[in-house]
């Protein structure tokens, strides 16, 4: 495939530091006249870029589209003298941060359903193990349960190993109309059978409730169900999220997420492997690229090119899930 | 139509001050779960939002989509002590600004083709006249040729009345699949027969050459030509642009744009009225909203609801044209 074959390009980014990132990237690749649009949907920026590329092809506007995600330190680390935890510095107002929200959700889940800190920590252990076999991961070192527990506390009960890192990154995926895909590769190419975005719901939180709502619509539209999912790449910025979304996606009843972690259902050898890439926790979460990176992982898993992090079962149907600040959930369903 | 009928929403904005503007707006309207995506393509941000809404419907993803544009002081005016003209302050490096680029393009056009300052100024006079009858315009006062000449010089030969203002603004358009439009209105609704975006070309500038290239593709795709255009809303951030794009769109040979202005071809009573709204020069250019505002003007003109700024001839086919920094040209063709 030549660069000239790309007809439309979408770039997802929330980094306010880079203006018109799509144009900068495409300009550097060579000026072909390709149609470029920059999209921004917080953590779901990359997923939205992928979705717009999909819609451009589905609409007949083009046959080949590029979805990119890029960000450079979209979220800056705490500055010297600022505290990263949930305790305000003396005399300063509390600075809201997502970790406080998810720490509270973890506490609620523990209180309501008896979910344990061990179950939360096991999500981190699995994630780091998977990432230890992913050459594209930000963290490529496995961790033990003890290490997760003993790590620096950020917001109780979440130590730093329960939290995704920040960083720079980039990811890209090329989408083709079915009729032309064979021109470019004879390798397996998954088919996008569902692409759904939903935002700001009347009630409920923009993570659990919105994921539940969007998944229900997607299953209806595609005639699938949670039991069909052979792989899920999901938004695990914090360990509690894997447990929450397991439930929101319908893989178990509310409150049963922790049990599924204990049973290894979401590990590489389980029935519903989650985040074989290492996910946001360990592959990383540079924001713009994250949702596009999920798609790449699904492709590689379906092609069984993942080496030691290869999912044991055959991956026939896989889901990419992202939520984003502002209140957005993006789901993509890919079929082998 | 109820707010709940909107299925997808796109918000074009380049204002770095507002995060996730689409989500903020849709949240305030009432949380329905509508799918929201924020897009950013410089001056063409609104046009890109309109285009994505169009593609979402064309792809079959939804039947009703909202395209919005919004910005709050996307470009700040020169700060106290900064000079707005093309002369650097003593000892300070020259600060590049778009007006310098277009002033140079005006000079080049004058030298190469004999275009006059009078012809440039007439664009401003026409624009302000049209806007004087537009209740949505930022400037609603007609100006004389003498006033344009005598206004404060910004970058020779462009006085401030050759330049569009900055400002806050918002615009919205609702797009429907043909099969459902009748459910919501019995008024005339134009059909989008072409939607094209092109970016960064191999050679040539991102304004004239890119417009020429994109227009050629659009005419080919839609079986139309410049002679068919009954109304054009185009990107006239500076007066020279109306002359340049007249030529780039093929309404005359290169160098003949000034003559068309003299002959009144682009006035409300002319063969190819341009910017009946007042355009960027007089309706205003708040960035994100501008491209969506063009669509509204076309709709009103086709419905003959424009009062004293109503185009004389019947508007059967109209074009909305935007260019944007970063190198993008968006064209939409609407048919009665």
Summarize the structure.
With 336 residues, chain A is of the alpha/beta class. Chain A contains 11 helices and 10 strands.
Fourth CATH level, the homologous superfamily of the largest domain in chain A: Thiolase/Chalcone synthase
The total count of strands of chain A amounts to 10
CATH topology of the largest domain in chain A: Peroxisomal Thiolase, Chain A, domain 1
Low-confidence runs of chain A: 80-89
Order of helices and strands of chain A: EHEHEHHHEEEHEHEHHHHEE
Q: In oligomeric terms, what are we looking at? A: homodimer
Strand order, main sheet of chain A: write it out.
2-1-3-6
Q: Rough shape of chain A?
A: globular
Strand residue percentage of chain A: 15-25%
């Amino acid at each position: 495939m030549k660069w000239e074959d790309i007809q439309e390009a979408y770039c997802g980014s929330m980094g306010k530091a880079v203006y018109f990132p799509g144009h900068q990237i495409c300009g550097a690749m060579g000026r072909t006249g390709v149609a470029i649009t920059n999209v921004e949907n917080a953590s779901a920026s990359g997923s939205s870029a992928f979705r717009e590329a999909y819609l451009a092809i589905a609409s007949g506007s083009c046959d080949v589209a590029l979805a990119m995600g890029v960000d450079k330190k979209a979220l800056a680390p705490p500055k010297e003298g600022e505290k990263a935890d949930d305790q305000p510095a003396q005399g300063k107002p509390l600075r809201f941060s997502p970790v406080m929200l998810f720490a509270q959700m973890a506490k609620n889940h523990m209180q309501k359903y008896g979910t344990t800190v061990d179950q939360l920590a096991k999500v981190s252990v699995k994630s780091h193990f998977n990432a230890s076999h992913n050459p594209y991961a930000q963290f490529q070192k496995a961790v033990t349960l003890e290490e997760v527990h003993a790590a620096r506390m950020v917001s109780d009960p979440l130590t730093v190993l329960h939290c995704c890192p920040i960083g720079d990154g980039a990811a890209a995926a090329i989408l083709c109309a079915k009729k032309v895909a064979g021109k470019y590769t004879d390798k397996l190419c998954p088919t996008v059978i569902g692409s759904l975005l939903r935002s700001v719901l009347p009630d409920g939180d923009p993570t659990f409730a919105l994921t539940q709502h969007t998944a229900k619509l997607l299953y209806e539209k595609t005639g699938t169900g949670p039991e069909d999912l052979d792989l899920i790449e999901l938004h695990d910025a914090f360990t509690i999220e894997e447990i929450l979304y397991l439930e929101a996606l319908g893989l178990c009843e509310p409150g049963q997420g922790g049990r599924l972690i204990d049973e290894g259902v979401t590990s590489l050898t389980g029935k519903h492997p989650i985040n074989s890439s290492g996910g946001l926790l360990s592959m990383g979460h540079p924001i713009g690229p994250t949702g596009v990176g999920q798609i790449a992982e699904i492709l590689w898993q379906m092609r069984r090119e993942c080496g030691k992090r290869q999912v044991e079962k055959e991956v026939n149907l896989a889901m990419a899930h992202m939520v984003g600040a502002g209140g957005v959930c993006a789901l993509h369903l890919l079929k082998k």
